[in-house]
Known about the structure:
Elements lengths: L2 E5 H15 L3 E5 L15 H5 L4 E3 L4 H13 L3 E5 L10 H8 L2 H4 L9 E6 L14 H5 L5 E3 L4 H13 L4 E6 L6 E5 L11 E4 L4 E5 L3 H13 L5 E5 L2 E3 L3 H11 L2 E8 L4 H12 L9 E5 L10 H4 L3 H12 L2
Parallel strand pairs: 2-3, 2-4, 4-5, 5-7, 6-7, 10-11, 10-13, 13-14
Antiparallel strand pairs: 1-8, 6-12, 9-11
Helix pairs in contact: 1-7, 3-4, 8-12, 9-10
Amino acid sequence: MAIEKMSIAKALNESLRKALEQDPKVLIMGEDVGKLGGVFRITDGLQKDFGEERVIDTPLAESGIVGTAIGLALRGYRPVVEIQFDGFVFPAYDQIVTQLAKMHARALGKIKLPVVVRIPYGGAIGAVEHHSESPEALFAHVAGLKVVSPSNASDAYWMLQQAILSDDPVIFFEPKRRYWDKGEVDTEAIPGELHKSRVVREGADLTLAAYGPMVKVCLEAAAAAAEEGKSVEVLDLRSMSPVDFDGIQASVERTRRLVVVHEAPVFLGVGSEIAARITERCFYHLEAPVLRVGGFHAPYPPARLEDEYLPGLDRVLDAVDRSLAY
């Protein structure tokens, strides 16, 4: 066992380093990922140690970055693409949904595209427009893509390696507001399944289900609820496509209530599908309707207003209280 305490940013860096060491076909591509080490320094030092042919500074052209990664994957490489900020992914959306997601089916399974698209996402960093989006539902809706997001350093380290090893394309959302949160990472552990949810706090009265940046908020809400005698379970979903509905169902059958939390807008968000599916599966177990907490159906606001837009402790606790009141 080799346990180290590190930030999520450091865990991602170490994970990429390990992947580069283990497989010469792994490449890293993106804007400023080389000499600069990325705007969040996730790729810091990798070009210096592995060279410019494996850690590649690209032009400012997201469509070209992903298109090039698709061509490299067709030739046997495993490209890891960085999109500098969430709102910059849309020029590459066509390449991702019409080529990357479809090629395996189009080739009747004969072609695989092991491409990882890393996207720092979410708000709460005081950024300007196009730097704080949560577009995960747009990708989870597309068949042929896996969509995941870690909430802690250990998952960041292991889930990124699992994504790189996957023969299917993976959209890897990194919660940028949590990059500097620290946690223990066992670099010799045997990781669990990439798309399995995980109970991170046990409870008996209600389940809070979240992923990425909102898991920490839900843990804080569960701790606050405990002071009032409420036992709240927190479930880290980890994967938005596929969703571990069996794991959610098991938790809901214990607690009989569910609140789904994400930064993205509630309208047609990942929580909408979870609410519908769990209502179908757990109708006779539920003692309250499945509630959702998230952003508003509006463009992401200027930084000075983002605290009002983003779901925080009070909005999560309000949903807990409403659910328990049924």
